[in-house]
Amino acid sequence: MRLKKIFLIYSLIFSLSVYASDLYAFTQDHPGINSVSATEDPHNTEEGDENEAFDPREFIFDHISDSHEWHIFTTPDGHHVSIYLPVIVYSKSKGLNVFSSKHLAHGHEYRGFIIMNEGDLEGDIVEVDDEGIVNEKNLPLDLSITKNVAAMFVVAILLLWLFIALARSYRKTGISEPKGLQGFLEPVVLFVRDDIAIPNLGEEKYEKYMPYLLTVFFFILLNNLMGLIPVFPGGANVTGNIAVTFTLAAFTMIIINFNGGRGYWQHIFNTPGVPWWLKIPLPLMPIVELIGVIAKPFALMVRLFANITAGHIIVLSLVGLIFIFQSVAFAPISIIMVLFMDFIEILVAFLQAYIFTLLSALFIGLAVREEH
Amino acid sequence: MILASNLTSPELGTIVWTTIIFLLLLLLLRIFAWKPIMDAIKAREESIKGSLESAEEAREEMKRLKADNEAIMEEARKERDELLREARDARDKMIAEAKKQAKNEADKLLQKALTGIERGKTMAINDIRNQIASLSVEIAEKILDEKLKDSREQNKLIEKLLDDMDLKGN
């Protein structure tokens, strides 16, 4: 099957890049972690790097959380090289403020804003007054281009470039056999059409939903894959961010409910084939069905978020083992385990993109289908 | 430091940006990518389907033509057989006819010959008889001439002759 071949090629490319960047990550992460630990634990600030305590939880959550800067690498003498992303923050008292996150780096205060580095609000931008007291009641609206947002822009631009090039190649080759980029991407596009859209939405209705299904599939897929590459411009945990999966699931929910036919709403408010006393006087079935309306996209949101985040946590834990054992000798074992996990993660990247799209198509199909 | 709660609480800013990026991506891809791509794939599939159908049609046509040919050949073969049989029949009939005719002719000739022979034989017999009669008469005359020289002798002879005549008078 052609799809298997494509998958193999993807896997090979990614395993190589992941392998290379894992090695890179080891050399980069170590000083980075130490400097973070040093600021956290004032008792442990000795000169030697090896003696500092390693906090695996912080190491892991630092890597999977969103941030206002995009850390690229750390020089051997401990300098962080990051891209400082724009902060866009709106507060009632100060209005709209746009500035570089460079000003907020390392806990600095700028225009009365500060990034919290502890507590419930860790990583969030908060307002401080002149005395340096944090205003925890009125949080400013943070519309910053964070690392995840920037990564999404990168993915969006990549997708646009890739698929507009694909569309152009079709204009050139006409109806002849697929060549180059077409041979690489067309089987995946056809897979979305023939194995996801048509079986769930039917021959007549599938075309209307193809743009959404294709976009959501490739958006999730590429974000998943980019998340596996630890170096810039990958490494952002976009599809492991609950806000992102929430938004995508919300799109599916909107499409389901805006396109739901008469049968769909009848099923919710007057479920056929159910005894009347489950509907009147206590509308038990409608309540259950309405919970279902929320539960379906909720499941989509949690499934994608949890799968991707869990995968990242496992990989980071395996990398973290080197620092816990404080031994380079453990690195080969760790690398083998990480490489194995990365292979599984590539599978998961495809699988989760597929499942999200498949279930979206299935739910939309159930809603738009006529009496069944 | 409750990091897990940070992970599971969606940030409004990220939601807003995701919405903007995703909608823009959807819109742009829909216009500039999905439509031309899906149209091209569809056009190709349709052309393949059309080609296959016309190939199938051609094959059907060929099959029909072949069947037609077969029928025509069969007919021709039958006709040939018919002609051959007719020819054979005609030949046989002609031979039989000729044989019959030859036989008739031969029979006729034979009959004629037989009749001729019979007639010749009869004539010959008659001739011989006549000659024998006249010879007999002559002989008788001579003998009578001889014998009738004396009367006794004459009488004797007459009697003897009469006896003889009685003997062979049939």
Description:
The complex is a heterodimer of chains A (372) and B (170). By secondary structure, chain A is mainly alpha-helical. Chain A folds into two domains: 86-142, no CATH class; 147-368, no CATH class. Chain A has helices at 2-40, 56-64, 147-173, 181-228, 242-259, 262-269, 284-325, 331-368, and strands spanning 69-74, 80-84, 86-91, 95-100, 113-115, 125-128, 134-135, 141-142. Chain A has a three-stranded antiparallel β-sheet, with no helix packed on it. In chain A, strands 5-6-7 form a three-stranded antiparallel β-sheet, with no helix packed on it. In chain A, strands 1-2 form a two-stranded antiparallel sheet. In chain A, helix 1 crosses helix 8 (331-368), helix 3 packs antiparallel against helix 4 (181-228) and helix 5 (242-259) packs parallel to helix 8. Chain B is mostly helical and 170 residues long. Chain B has helices at residues 3-8, 12-147, 151-168. The longest helix of chain B is centred in the middle third of the chain and has 136 residues, at 12-147. Chain B has three helices and no strands. The model of chain B has no long low-confidence stretch (mean pLDDT 87). The interface between A and B is large, with 54 and 39 residues.
What does the radius of gyration of chain A come to? 24 Å
Strand order of the largest sheet of chain A: 4-3-8
How does the overall form of chain A come out from the CA principal axes?
A: globular
Structural class of the secondary structure composition of chain B?
mainly alpha
- Note the run of SSEs of chain B as H and E: HHH
Q: What's the number of helices of chain A?
A: 8
State the end-to-end CA separation of chain B: 179 Å
Q: Name the quaternary structure.
A: heterodimer
What structural category characterises the helix and strand content of chain A? mainly alpha
- Runs of chain B with pLDDT <50, length 5+? none
List unreliable stretches of 5+ residues of chain A.
30-51
